[in-house]
Design goal:
- By secondary structure, the chain is an alpha+beta fold.
- It folds into 2 domains: 360 residues, Beta-lactamase (3-Layer(aba) Sandwich); 77 residues, Lipocalin.
- It is built from 11 helices and 22 strands.
- Strand 16 and strand 17 form a beta hairpin.
Length: 460
């Protein structure tokens, strides 16, 4: 969760940790392999964010990697060939497939989504403006994070069982509340639809397109939709933020949003499309992705196809991140000096080791989190104790928190982003994915994070 200004418009969900704009130079002086290893050791041993972390770096002189810890409790050491679920980094692969299809004349970015879906699937419009492929790829379609008709039965596997028929029914029943392209809203729903459009137009499954268009030509043998067998020593076991082991999520019909597995070695190869010598056949499609300029999720962030971009002066930091069942993943690059970084750790948290990647890329004032977490113990509360806490809490017109009942517990919603909160007393709750707490008081709540507090009044 990021805190770029004194408002509680925090980032709570996967694929959304904000890149903090700062002084951007070439690689930050004095932040090298030994510094990275120190941070990774702190993340694993002190902060308990998984059992292992790996950071890979690439510049014109070559590649290197720093790893710390193991692939699982009692398992072998993690390294650049350990296989992680890469979460929402998958979206950049999906966007590259779109850009390649555009380069080859199969599709256009301004094509209506409906043009590339089966007959009978209804795509909504707003005031005559319909959803285009570019809207989907830049999170500007006006669609929510998850399809409204997705009703998760297992919070540890929220997309399992969601079918293509469900996806088509979800978009056919959806009503837009604003024109597509009007504003950013991070959406797995959108990327699932983009994936279906690609498959319908190109006549191949998503797995086949990834293999034939990207991983095969680039020699990325360890990247795909199927994890290795559990007995494979390179397979990384994922953990929840509270230390519980968890299997990878089954993204089902939304596999294009977060279903890939890969290694630091392979993703560094992938980054070569933007920072390498430029001889790959996919090079023109990759470069074209960065020419798109749409609104992002903060004033200093712009959206390209699949990528976020923060620009300082003449230099760009291009990046993507995400979390999934048992993993946090980050990749970023600076095209101007041909540097790139990949950072994975095997715990589902809201921050992972993103800050390490950003610092190495040259975001000179990127804060490195070396805090020592406070341990919280969850207790059981009856639904009758939770229900009175649900409601709207206000600090400013653009800074509200919605607390609501979901299943057997409470969730906190800030903007479009939602995370569960867990009780350690009848009035004090904590997040597991980030170091933040909520205390309910008479007439409001107090949000504590990063040594600061914000007091919200309850609204009717």
């Amino acid at each position: 969760m990021s805190r770029p200004r004194p408002s509680r418009r925090a980032v709570l969900s996967s694929g959304g940790a904000l890149l903090l704009a700062g002084q951007v130079s070439a690689q930050t002086p004095g932040f090298g392999a030994q510094d990275i290893r120190k941070v990774l050791a702190h993340r694993v041993d002190i902060q308990k964010r998984g059992t292992g972390a790996v950071v890979g770096m690439r510049d014109p002189k070559g590649r290197s990697a720093v790893a710390y810890g193991s692939t699982r409790i009692g398992g072998p050491g993690a390294d650049a060939r350990s296989i992680f679920p890469i979460a929402s980094l998958t979206k950049v692969f999906t966007a590259l497939l779109l850009s390649d299809a555009v380069q080859r004349g199969h599709m256009r970015l301004d094509d209506p989504l409906a043009k590339h879906l089966p007959a009978g699937v209804v795509v909504p419009d707003f005031g005559g403006r319909t959803i285009t492929l570019a809207d989907l790829a830049t999170h500007g379609a006006g669609l929510p994070l998850r399809p409204p008709n997705l009703h998760a039965t297992d919070p540890d596997d929220p997309y399992a069982g969601y079918t293509t028929a469900d996806l088509y029914a979800g978009i056919s029943a959806f009503k837009l509340t604003r024109a597509p392209g009007a504003e950013f809203e991070y959406s797995n729903f959108a990327y699932g639809l983009l994936g279906q459009a690609l498959q319908h137009r190109l006549g191949r499954s998503y797995g086949e397109l990834i293999r034939d268009k990207i991983t095969g030509p680039l020699g990325m043998a360890d990247t795909g939709l199927t994890p290795p067998a559990a007995s494979d020593p390179r397979r990384v076991q994922g953990y929840e933020a509270d230390g519980r082991p968890t299997p990878p999520w089954d993204f089902a019909a939304l596999v294009e949003t977060g279903g890939l597995f890969s290694t630091v070695t392979d993703v560094l190869t992938f980054l070569g499309l933007w920072i390498g010598p430029g001889r790959a056949a996919l090079g023109p499609a990759a470069r074209a992705m960065l020419t798109i300029d749409r609104p992002g999720d903060a004033k200093d962030i712009r959206m390209a196809l699949g990528w976020r971009i923060t620009k300082v002066g003449a230099r760009r930091v291009v990046w993507s991140n995400g979390s999934t069942g048992g993993c946090r993943a980050f990749m970023g690059l600076c095209p101007e000096d041909r540097t790139g970084v990949v950072a994975f750790n095997n715990a589902q948290t809201a921050t992972g080791v993103d800050d390490v990647g950003l610092r190495w890329l040259g975001v000179a004032d990127q804060h490195i989190d070396m805090s020592v977490p406070v341990q919280h113990t969850e207790i059981a509360l009856a639904r009758s104790q939770l229900a009175p806490l649900a409601g709207l809490y206000w600090l400013a017109d653009d800074d509200t928190v919605i607390i609501r009942l979901e299943g057997a517990g409470l969730v906190a919603q800030v903007g479009k982003q939602i995370l569960p909160i867990y009780p350690e007393s009848p009035t004090r709750f904590f997040f597991k994915a980030v170091d933040a707490q909520i205390d309910f008081t008479t007439g409001g709540l107090v949000w504590t994070q990063g040594g600061q507090t914000w007091r919200y009044a309850r609204r009717p």
